Amino acid sequence: ERLPELLRRMPKAELHIHIEGSLEPELMFEMAQRNRVALPYASVDDLRRAYDFSNLQSFLDIYYAGAGVLITERDFFDMAWAYLQKARADHVLHTEIFFDPQTHTARGVSMETVVNGLHRACEQARAQLGVNASLILCFLRHLSEEDAFQTLEQAMPFRDRFIGVGLDSSEVGHPPEKFAKVFARCRELGLHLVAHAGEEGPPAYVWTALDVLKVERIDHGVQSSKDPALMKRLAQDRIPLTVCPLSNLKLCVFPRLQDHNLGQLLDAGLVATVNSDDPAYFGGYMNDNFLRTFEATGLTAAHAHRLAVNSFEASFIGAAEKRKYR
Ligand code: ADE
Ligand code: ZN
């Protein structure tokens, strides 16, 4: 079988997707219209032209502005449903979806509206698409730990509707240890723990995500290759990295896709996975990430198989379920 066909058709899990980053410009304009929200762009094309980023912050500014069109439960449902259909088309059997409630509650949208809309789409995906979807609540690291605690409090009535918590937004200057107390509390609550670290930030942030926050996975983590001791730790403890190649390219973490270190991470024995991050902004869903990265870097069918196996190993599905995907 040709490698592109193998990449497209192989069953896979997605573990790093921000649902707000799956909102395509067309749907964003539709929601802006029906909710009577003004967008600072004249057209879909005008908006797409703004997707020319120099670093993480230049993207986040536009991403948070775009999320301003999401008002009703239907909006959250429609956004997630559109993503889940793309996931099905890319042979994603299992997906763990990040959402950023603070982006919405700060605008007066209730936690209930956000969680119910997303949850309903996940339920429908299981029933109608055969895609298994769970939610992970992310705290915004540019905000305070106190704000994160309030967000956790607001989410507690919906505790059974998300499987874990994460940490995202502006990385440099907001190290994981800023959220030590709230992650300790989430750990007591039995929530799964993940955090973005080593996307733009230093290996030191990956160390503290592991040792202070006690996360089970690192989101991105590509800067880890700068620290041999950290590479050893990640390999020995089988700490997964949810790598997002097209995101790294668009946010200038690597100058060219052929410079990406995914192959280096895999060859060092790390549990690296491929994910889309914010597909509507970075030019591709799962299979686009696989196909373009393999094309650019010359990874092999053995790497493809390893990535598929890693994606299920790194997921939070139960041990019994997991055996079915081996
Ligand atoms: N929020 C959405 N995408 C993100 C990314 N790649 N890094 C940090 N925060 C994000
Ligand atoms: Zn991310």
Structural write-up:
By secondary structure, the chain is α/β, with parallel strands linked by helices. It has a single domain (3-22, 79-315), classed as Alpha-Beta Barrel (TIM Barrel), CATH 3.20.20. The protein is built from 17 helices and 8 strands. Strands 1-2-3-4-5-6-7-8 form an 8-stranded parallel beta sheet. Helix 5 runs parallel beside helix 7. It is globular, with a radius of gyration of 18 Å. The two termini are 20 Å apart. The mean pLDDT is 97. The structure holds adenine and zinc ion (ZN). The site of adenine (ADE) has 11 residues, from helix 4. The site of zinc ion has 6 residues, from strand 1.
Describe the structure concisely:
This protein has 326 residues and is an alpha/beta fold. The chain has helices at 3-9, 25-35, 44-49, 56-66, 73-89, 101-105, 111-128, 145-155, 180-188, 203-211, 228-236, 245-250, 262-267, 279-282, 286-297, 301-313, 319-324; strands at residues 12-18, 92-99, 132-140, 164-168, 192-197, 217-220, 241-243, 272-274. It has one domain: Metal-dependent hydrolases (TIM Barrel), CATH 3.20.20.140.
